Automatic annotation (TrEMBL):
Protein name: Putative mycolyltransferase
Source organism of the structure: Gordonia namibiensis NBRC 108229
Gene3D superfamilies registered for this protein in UniProt: alpha/beta hydrolase
GO molecular function terms noted in the UniProt entry: acyltransferase activity, transferring groups other than amino-acyl groups
InterPro entries: AB_hydrolase_fold, Esterase-like, Mycobacterial_A85_antigen
Coiled coil: none
Secretion signal, residue range per the UniProt entry: 1-34
Keywords for this protein: Signal, Transferase
SUPFAM superfamilies for this protein: alpha/beta-Hydrolases
Species lineage: Bacteria, Bacillati, Actinomycetota, Actinomycetes, Mycobacteriales
Record carries keyword DNA-binding: no
Length: 339
């Protein structure tokens, strides 16, 4: 029996969906993490940056959520004039554990000579950084779009002499969120970069990706209403891709096949066979799913004749690749923010 292209695509989606369901049931984080020595070195660099005033820990009150939100800021190297701001979001954990930019990457060292303020919210786990339509029994009030687009920017501009030029970037869960945030606040962000995020929320694969993140921590119906309903289409970056016109756009994904960081001798794995199997066996299929979503966004932007940079390479769903992608996307981000 012959297999049509449409049947093949449907089978591919079903295969990816099956992987996501398995990851949800196992509740496994797929990302490689830094070893103890590297963590200690990065903590020391951060402590020195704090002591020198190059890094700040702020507590910003959110009226819409009636809560205080911890926010970490890497201050621009030269503060003699107002500087632009890049909002850099963490993945599914929201920075509430060790899976965040300051533990898992060299962000403090990277930012030391940059004339851009880098702002990282250290909360918002499993929320998709969106405004939930209902109060959730576990999460309470989630109004992250309101916080990030309306409440936080004026505070940052006042605290660190921001210029009002803003960009936004994020990984994994936030790779979806930053695209939706840029679409929802078209006048706020000049540029957006999404690393390893599924750019769909209204397709079956996109819905399962969201459900896998939210999982048993919250009721996903409290986020955008019934699964598959209008709210899910309203937040779908592919459907709303036309709203990205005029922005500098960078989107990346690994293919899911093992890449240069997926070797036993590499820093995050350090010869640990079980860790290698976890990263390749779970992080590989997860990244293959984001690769599929990313290609759909790529096609849609081409249809709309909206310029964007897409970067694909072998690799899994893990931090070493996101550190690389921040560096690769930086020239584009910096140009857009300083023009």
């Amino acid at each position: 029996m012959s297999v049509t292209r449409g049947n093949l695509q449907r089978r591919t989606v079903r295969a990816f969906a099956a992987v996501i369901v398995v990851v949800l049931s196992l509740a496994i984080s797929a990302t490689a993490v830094a070893d103890t020595g590297v963590k200690a070195e990065r903590a020391d660099l951060l402590a020195r940056a704090m002591a020198e005033g190059r890094a700040l820990d702020l507590t910003v009150h959110s009226p819409s959520m009636n809560r205080d939100v911890p926010v970490r800021v890497l201050v621009a190297a030269d503060t003699s004039v107002p500087r632009p701001t890049l909002y850099l979001l963490n993945g599914s954990g929201g920075g509430e554990g060790d899976a965040h930019w300051f533990v898992q990457t060299d962000i403090v060292k990277f930012a030391a000579d940059k004339n851009v303020n880098i702002v990282v919210p250290m909360s918002g786990g499993y929320s998709y950084y969106t405004d939930w339509v209902k109060v959730d029994p576990n999460f309470g009030i989630n109004k992250w779009t309101t916080f990030l687009t309306r409440e936080l920017p004026p505070v940052i501009d006042q605290k660190v002499n921001g210029s009002g030029a803003n960009g936004i970037a994020g990984i994994s869960m936030a790779g979806t969120s930053v695209l939706a945030l840029a679409e929802s606040a078209p006048d706020l962000y000049r540029t957006v970069a999404a690393y390893s995020g599924c750019a769909e929320t209204s397709t079956r694969l996109g819905q399962l990706a969201v459900q896998a993140v939210v999982g048993e921590r919250g009721d996903v119906r409290n986020m955008w209403g019934p699964v598959g309903g209008p709210g899910w289409r309203d937040h779908d970056p592919v459907i709303n891709a036309h709203k990205l016109r005029g922005k500098a756009i960078y989107v990346s994904s690994g293919t899911g096949l093992p890449g240069r960081h997926d070797r036993l001798a590499n820093e995050a794995i350090d010869g640990d066979v079980a860790e290698y199997a976890r990263i390749v066996g779970v992080g590989g299929p997860l990244e293959a799913a984001t690769y599929y979503c990313t290609q759909n966004l790529d096609k849609r932007l081409k249809q709309l004749r909206i310029p964007a940079t897409f970067d694909y390479e072998p690799g899994t769903h893990s931090w070493p690749y996101w550190q690389d992608q921040l560096a690769k996307s930086w020239p584009m981000l910096e140009r857009a923010l300083t023009r």
